[in-house]
Amino acid sequence: MSDQIGKYQNQIPSLLTLDIKSYERIFKVYYDSINGKEFPYYNILKKIEIPELDSSVIEFHDVQIRQPLTTVSFDIYGDIRSWWIIYLLNKDKFTGVPFWVEGGTQLKVLKTELRTLLYLDITQNTIFGGRHF
Predict the structure, then answer these.
(1) 43 and 53 belong to one structural domain
(2) What is residue 126's DSSP assignment?
(3) Does 53 share its domain with 87?
(4) Cβ partners under 8 Å of residue 117, min gap 6
(5) 55 plus 119 within the same structural domain
(6) Separation between Cα atoms, residue 94 and residue 67, nearest integer Å
(7) Are 98 and 61 members of one domain?
(8) Do 18 and 80 reside in the same domain of the chain?
(9) Collapsing DSSP states into helix, strand and coil, what is residue 75?
(10) In whole angstroms, what is the distance from residue 83 CA to residue 93 CA?
């Protein structure tokens, strides 16, 4: 594994540009050399935590039937890529099969109009101890 600091994918011209909603956009890309070839990778061992948020930025969503988080994300935000925000705000509610929400569950969700601010804040802030805040 390379000891370099890494860059965000959108800073590397040879890689595809990621939409701001993409979970992968949060992580830096590193390179590993194998047999003289360079391979990009994400360090998936890094953690993302969202601190307790003020009630003025949170809404609640009642899940009617068992659904994957991607479907819940689409129902709330109109895209499937924001599943990870819902998960991080509700980790305590996921028992059994991760990333599936049981019907009758009430979830905390970030207000739709604030998502872009959260995405920007996470990717622009400094990393402390392997965590984005």
Answers:
(1) no
(2) P
(3) yes
(4) none
(5) yes
(6) 12
(7) yes
(8) no
(9) helix
(10) 14
Residues 119 and 54 in one domain: yes
Residue 131 has pLDDT above 90, yes or no: no
For 45, residues 6+ apart whose C-beta sits below 8 A from its C-beta are 130
Tell me the β-bridge partners of 41. 30
Distance CA 29, CA 44 (A): 10
Quote the number of domains for the chain: 2
Q: Do residues 72 and 101 both lie within one domain?
A: yes
Residue 37's identity, in one-letter code, is K
Side chain identity at residue 77, one-letter code: Y
Domain span at residue 117 reads 49-123
CA distances, 70 to each of 16, 29, 43 (Å): 22, 24, 23
Is residue 50's pLDDT more than 80?
A: no
Task: Identify residue 12 by its one-letter amino acid code.
Answer: I
Residue (of 59, 48, 120, 131) closest to 84 by Cα position: 48
- pLDDT at position 3 is 45
Do 22 and 74 belong together in one domain? Answer: no
Higher-pLDDT residue of 37 and 61 is 61
Contacts 24+ apart (CB under 8 A), 75-81: 76/109, 76/112, 77/112, 77/115, 79/21, 81/19, 81/21, 81/22, 81/23
